[in-house]
Amino acid sequence: MSSTPFGKNINFPITLAPMVGLSHISFRLMLREYLPKKAETLWPTEMLNSRKIPKQDLATNPLSLKGPDETNMAPQILGNEEKPIKDSLKCLELWGANSIDINMGCPVKKALRHNYGVALMGDVKYARSVVEMTVKNTKLPVSVKLRAGFQNDLEFLKKFVLEMQDGGVSWLTLHPRLAIEKRRGRADWSQITFVKNQLSIPVIGNGDVQTSDDAFRMLELTGCDMVMVGRALTARPWLLWQVAEKLGYEAPTLFKGRKAPCTPEEEAQEYGRSLLRLVELTQKYFELRPGLLRLKYYIKVSHVWLNFGHSFNTQVLAAKTFEELRNIITQFFQKSSLAMTQKTNLRE
After folding, report:
1. Is 91 a catalytic residue?
2. Catalytic residue from among 91, 106, 224, 262
3. Which fold has domain 42-229?
4. pLDDT digits over 172-194, tens only?
5. Total-model pTM
6. Cβ neighbours of residue 113 under 8 Å, at least 6 residues apart?
7. Beta bridge partners of residue 7, listed in sequence order
8. So what's the pLDDT on residue 340?
C-alpha cells in the first residue's frame, strides 16, 4: 500500500463528517456502498466522550458499533484531561482505530459547559496541551477538527492552527464558521485557503458542500487536501459515486455498469432506495426504539432536499415499526413527481 498524508492507501478526496446521531454504523455501511472498491477515505464515528469510553464495551456500544469489514476508522473524541484520554486511546486502538480526531468545533452548550469542543479554542495553550497529551499516548495519527473560533480574527486563527501543528497533529479540519453561528450564515472558504497557506500539514475543508460540484469547487478554490461533507451526504449519499465517476473510477460494485444519478428525478428515486437500504441496515444493528429514533432523525435532516419532503417526514414520524417505515418509504416513492433540489437551507 502506498502512503498518503492521511495514512496508508487513503486516495479519495471526500470524507464523511462526524455527526451526532448520524455517523453511525448503519449510515457508514450504506454510504460505503456508493464508494468504488479502489477508493479509500477516512471514516469517522459519532463523537465519543473520553470520560465514558474506558467504561464502555466499544464492540456493543451503539455509538461505536463497527462492521467487521470497516477500515480506515477515524473515531472522534471529546476530551480535555490526560488520564481519560490515555485510557480511551488504549480502548480505541484495540477497537481498530486507524487515527484519532479531537473535537474542537462542537458549539453545543453541553460541550461548552464541560470545556469540550469549540470551548478549547478559548485557550490556545490549553488546546495545544490536549493535542500533546493525545499524541504522546498513541502511535496513531492525531487530527483536530475546529471552527473559525469565537471572533473574526485571522491572526488568532493563524496562531491557533500553528499551535495545533506544533503540538503534533497530522492534519487539521476547518469548518470556517464562528462558534456562535452554528450552521447559520455562510462558511467562509477563504479561511480554509488562509489556514492551508499557514501549515505544512494537510488541511480538510468543511462547510456548505451540498453537491459534487461544490466539492470540486472547494478543492480548487481553497487548495485543501480533502473535503468533509456532513448533512448533505444524508440526502445525497451517491455524491461519493458522482465524485468518483468524475475522477475516472469504475462504478461502485453494487451499481456496476450504471451511471451515477444526475437528474433531480433520478436523485429522488435513489434517495428512496437508499432509505430502504438504511432501514435494512438499521434493523440489523439496532433494537426497535433506538433504531427508529436514528432513522427518523436521519430523515428529518435529509428530507429538506426532496420536494414534498415535509409531507414525507410527517408520515415517517408516525411509523412505529421498521416494517411500517419501510412501507411508508416504498409507497411514497412510487410518486412520479418527486425530485431532489441541488441546494437547500442548512441553517436548522
Report:
1. no
2. 106
3. TIM Barrel (3.20.20)
4. 999 998 655 545 568 999 999 99
5. 0.93
6. none
7. 4
8. 96
